[in-house]
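From the shared-data thread, chain only:
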Amino acid sequence: MPVAEQTLNRFSKHTAAFFHSTNIGVVECKEGLYVIDSGAGDYDGENLAVTLEKIFPQKKVLALINTHAHADHAGGNRAFLSRTKAELWTSRKEAFLMEYPEMMSDMYWGARAFEEIDGGKFRAEQSLKADRIICEEEIRIDDEVTLSFVPLPGHFFEQYGVIVKEEEGNFFFTADSLFGIELLRKTWLPFLMEPVQFRKTLDKIAETDAKLFIPSHGKPIAKEKIHASCEVNAIVTLEAETLILKILSSACSQEKLLKAILDFANLDVKLDRYIWIGTTIRSYLSSMERRGLIEHFMEKNCLYWRAK
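Structure, as tokens:
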């Protein structure tokens, strides 16, 4: 369903979110609006801007806050910022990728990307420069609302979450550091850059004081259920490591390992998921080798991995 008036869910006087393929946060204060992420492309960005004009006709969008640079979070930036003239806020490393988006596709491929993955789902199409670099800080946007920026490592280079602090409680937009159960059932292996950091971030989220936790993909989670949700996310990563160790009981190349994992999960993937899951598997391999669980070796001009 596209971003529309009926998809806006209000949690409190100041905090709301559009439930979408990527949930989009909206924070209302006296001076205007702060928006968290913009969706997957120009269509989302334009719809988001138009819909906000209808719902909040007297409010100007003051800033678009990107949790990270993935195309499903920042792909709508160009259209949204063109219409709203808002500032763009994000962290330093994510700002670099937004200014040079072609590096996203190149990162996934490990070299200059071929045409089919050089755009679209793999990166934002436009180069945009951030107006403000966020860090671990709190910004009081009026006398009733404070925005707290929280580093959430593990998923991407410098992802940040946003806690909206107001009289009715704290509302934590957790970006892609916590995935909804529905998405985990569908994809099983979400994109990660470092599984150990991801699990530490889950521990941080579980101990955060918030009334509601809003992941970018999935339904909001009440504080009574956040420990269980974080535990499920952590278990998924540990299951992946257990499977990798089992497969690597015999030496295996990366390509054969990836195929074995996809076959185990009964997945029949297209190119986009093949690239993303392949990148994630390489992240697991790097992490597990650093922890002494596996090792690599060369044989007959081929790179192999095996359990230790």
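The mean pLDDT is 96.
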